[in-house]
């Protein structure tokens, strides 16, 4: 039975597509500016099972762009804050919450145990990101990967394309290079922006660990990336 809170989605899509979504299982890794809103949009679509993964805690510098980040949630685990929100949106959601950084063998364990219909990569560190993409591809789990939203301000330049067709994105460049070294040249759907980044808005600092730098962000751009990635997942799952 389709619940009342989904009545507007039901009107938009019809019963068959809504019921498809209600029977799907989606994994979202990384719950920052992109991943948090992406997970929320997937939950609001009525997807019935989700796993969300992030080990990070809310810092007040996240409050300009991240769904879990409020003054009242500072210091709390992003995954736990978001989990409470998702369950409040859909009390029937079957939700698995993992408060950990995933990499190497742990990535494999999670993917092999999950029976996921779709995976979303919102990881912002290079090696775990590439390993996750490769592991999903090897298991034929459909995946959409978000590339760099930092330093961008123009939403009209956000695109959905194949990894091989990305440009003007440093993260995309490094991901492409790493994937090529693993024999993967194309076949990965990504969300990216072709907008040039003002390099004066990027600073190298130890505070960015495990990354090497911090980049300026504006409120709406990570959300646009996240909503775009969510749309890829939802449209593919219902069709």
Automatic annotation (TrEMBL):
Biological processes annotated in GO: cyclic threonylcarbamoyladenosine biosynthetic process
PANTHER family: TRNA THREONYLCARBAMOYLADENOSINE DEHYDRATASE
Domain annotation THIF-type NAD/FAD binding fold: ranges: 12-237
Top-level division of the source organism's lineage: Bacteria
Native species: Hydrobacter penzbergensis
InterPro entries hit by this protein: ThiF/MoeB/HesA, ThiF_NAD_FAD-bd, Ubiquitin-activating_enz
UniProt-recorded name of the protein: tRNA A37 threonylcarbamoyladenosine dehydratase
Pfam families on file: ThiF
MF annotations from Gene Ontology: tRNA threonylcarbamoyladenosine dehydratase; ubiquitin-like modifier activating enzyme activity
């Amino acid at each position: 039975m389709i619940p009342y809170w989904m009545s507007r989605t039901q009107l938009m899509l019809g019963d068959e597509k809504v019921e498809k979504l209600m029977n799907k299982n989606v994994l979202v890794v990384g719950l920052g500016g992109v991943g948090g809103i992406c997970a929320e949009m997937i939950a609001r679509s009525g997807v019935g099972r989700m796993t969300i993964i992030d080990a990070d805690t809310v810092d007040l510098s996240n409050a300009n762009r991240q769904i879990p980040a409020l003054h009242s949630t500072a210091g709390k685990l992003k995954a736990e804050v978001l989990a409470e929100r998702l369950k409040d949106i859909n009390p029937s959601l079957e939700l698995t919450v993992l408060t950990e950084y995933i990499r190497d063998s742990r990535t494999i364990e999670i993917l092999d145990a999950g029976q996921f219909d779709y995976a979303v990569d919102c990881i912002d560190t290079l090696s775990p990101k590439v390993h996750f993409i490769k592991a999903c591809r090897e298991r034929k789990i459909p995946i959409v990967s978000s590339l760099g939203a930092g330093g961008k301000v123009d939403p009209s330049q956000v695109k959905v394309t194949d990894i091989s067709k990305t440009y003007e994105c440093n993260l995309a460049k490094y991901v492409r290079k790493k994937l090529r070294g693993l024999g993967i040249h194309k076949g990965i759907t990504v969300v990216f922006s072709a907008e040039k980044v003002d390099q004066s808005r990027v600073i190298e600092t130890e505070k960015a660990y495990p990354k090497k730098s911090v980049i300026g962000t504006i409120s709406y751009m990570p959300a646009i990336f996240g909503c775009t990635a969510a749309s890829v997942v939802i449209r593919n799952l219902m069709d």
